[in-house]
């Protein structure tokens, strides 16, 4: 039987595993730091941009109607559902 503390060193990860280059090139978000900065500098514009990438049956009036930090994002709006799309 394993005693407590005998395998604890295995739970302490200190390394970082980088994804392969081909996977990085296929990533949707190429500039994480830039996207994060944009989301913090102008959250309404950032999330409106993200929401505009979806197909809506009815567009929203405001992105954060209650105000930050309270969500939901674009409440009451309807996203066009495509059952044939994953």
TrEMBL record:
It holds the Pfam family ACAS_N. InterPro entries: ACAS_N (IPR032387), ANL_N_sf (IPR042099). It comes from Geodia barretti. Residues 32-64 form the Acetyl-coenzyme A synthetase N-terminal domain. This is Acetyl-coenzyme A synthetase N-terminal domain-containing protein. It comes from the Eukaryota.
């Amino acid at each position: 039987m394993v005693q407590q503390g005998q395998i604890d060193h295995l739970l302490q990860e200190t390394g970082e595993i980088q994804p392969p280059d081909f996977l990085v090139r296929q990533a949707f978000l190429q500039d994480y730091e830039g996207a994060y900065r944009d989301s913090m500098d102008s959250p309404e514009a950032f999330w409106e941009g993200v929401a505009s990438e979806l197909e809506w049956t009815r567009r929203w009036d405001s992105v954060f109607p209650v105000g930050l930090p309270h969500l939901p994002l674009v409440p009451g709006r309807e996203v066009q559902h495509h059952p044939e799309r994953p």
